[in-house]
Write a structure and sequence with these properties.
Elements: H1 24-36, H2 42-52, H3 56-76, H4 91-99, H5 109-121, H6 127-137, H7 141-172, H8 182-189
The structure holds a DNA duplex.
Length: 206
DNA sequence: GCGTAATCTAATCAACA
DNA sequence: TGTTGATTAGATTACGC
């Protein structure tokens, strides 16, 4: 998978968060919680965060990685070695956790303006930039990270769709031949994730 | 070098205007 | 109903021992 930040290009602006080192006691609590519920609700994650004195976002990442490791083990290990209680697919937990999500963050137009400006400047901000933005607009850093993820993702989708849409438009207008889509493709083909064009066709809220 | 936290994309769910 | 924040799986990167 393509990564935006090359290993040798680490600057203050794209530096990763330093690794969290969980203590034995913290891990005991986390593992115990995981064994009970691999898909904890937001309230549970918050409670755990409080209990082991860390951020809720770290709990979320820990559970994500833990589930991934479990799935991996499940695939690679012979079936008789599996611990039955923990290796179910846990569909009921998944369903339940959907009912207790974090409240949707609602950004003001000025917050969005700041985010978009930052995105145009750098679509892959490191921990320092994200924290700075978080302070600036008064939103947790984890929400900034999610916002950038969604924004990048939707930019990719939009860019994939644009040539098709241009074609459809031409067909709708009954304009035959000579109209070139090339221009659109070439200008969008670079690394310009920063374009706000992905929302330009639709209604914008900012 | 290994274990694993952090990060990424893509798909999907779901709140809200 | 479309937009977009939240969550997930799965893959990958890279930190810290």
């Amino acid at each position: 998978m393509a990564q935006a930040v090359s290993p040798n290009n680490t600057t203050a602006a794209n530096r990763r968060r330093s690794r969290t080192k969980f203590t034995e006691d913290q891990l005991k609590i986390l593992i115990n919680a995981f064994n009970q519920k691999p898909y904890p609700s937001y309230a549970t994650k918050q409670r755990l965060a409080l209990e082991i004195n860390t951020e809720e976002s770290r709990i979320q990442i820990w559970f994500q990685n833990r589930r991934a490791r479990h799935r991996f083990q499940k695939r690679s290990e012979p079936e008789e070695h599996l611990e039955s209680s923990q290796d179910e697919d846990h569909p009921e937990e998944k369903i339940q956790s959907r009912g207790d999500r974090r409240c949707r963050t609602s950004y003001t137009s000025s917050q969005l303006h700041t985010l978009i400006e930052a995105f145009m400047n750098n679509p892959y901000p490191g921990i320092d930039s994200r924290q700075q933005l978080a302070i600036e607009i008064g939103v947790p850093e984890s929400r900034i990270q999610i916002w950038f993820q969604n924004r990048r993702s939707r930019c990719h989708v939009q860019r994939k769709r644009e040539p098709d849409e241009a074609l459809e438009q031409r067909q709708d207008q009954g304009k035959i031949s000579e109209v070139r889509v090339q221009g659109i493709e070439t200008t969008q083909n670079g690394t310009d994730l920063t374009s706000d064009s992905y929302s330009s066709g639709a209604r914008t809220r900012w």
